[in-house]
Amino acid sequence: MTIRLLLADDQELVRLGLRMVLGTFDDLDVVGEAADGEQAVTETRRLVPDVVLMDIRMPGTDGITATARITETRPGTRVLVLTTFEEDEYVFGALRAGAAGFLLKDASRDKLVEAIRVVHQGDSLLSPAVTRRLIEVFSRRPQPVPVSTATERLTARERETLVQVARGRSNAEIGVILHVTEATVKTHVSSVLLKLGLRDRVQAVVFAYENGLVVAGQDD
Asked: Which residues are listed as membrane-spanning (predicted)?
């Protein structure tokens, strides 16, 4: 199956570079480009890509606003945000906007392609580096928020799983920590998302920090 891609970045050379790199893979097809957020929304509506590679800082309508509009109107299209360490303040906003994944702009070609395939399959991707930045943002909050009563719907094991997801750990790593199989972890994650009404793993991370289930700066 070919994955249809839309490239949204205000720098033409960046779009050209991405097109050249991604064009070498048989299962990837760049069907369009956008130079700003508004154009990204318009082209998504017109071309119906599977995945949008979204820059955050663009003139006019920025990547966060564009991501929110795309995920609201085209839920079948996944948004993979390309970010840099200098844009940390935007990461949380993009998370809440519904982005399916985050990748640093200095990531390797293989990491980029893997990320595209992961989000296209319906999974979410939040790199450890971006997770650390997210934790740093929450660590600057003066007071932790109360734990949400919504977590009462979770079993003890599901709650433990959510905590580990929020700390940026993979299913395999969580399995080792909780002494269960990776398949069991996947089952727990799916149950957490269903019970809390969350779309994906990325939203689970946001939920855990926003609702006080995980406090930045504190370990397990």
From this structure: none
What's the one-letter identity of residue 149? T
Q: Note the pLDDT tens digit of each residue in 41-91.
A: 999 999 999 999 999 888 899 999 999 999 989 988 999 998 775 555 677
Torsional class of 74: left (φ above 0), alpha (ψ -120 to 50), beta (otherwise)? beta
Number of residues in the chain: 220
pLDDT tens-digit readout, 27-36: 999 999 999 9
Q: Domain 3-136 is of which CATH architecture? A: 3-Layer(aba) Sandwich (3.40)
CATH for 141-210 is 1.10.10.10
Question: Residue 153, class by beta-carbon neighbours within 10 Å (0-12 exposed, 13-18 middle, 19+ buried)?
Answer: middle
Phi, psi of 128, deg, nearest 5: -55, -35
Rg (CA), the chain: 17
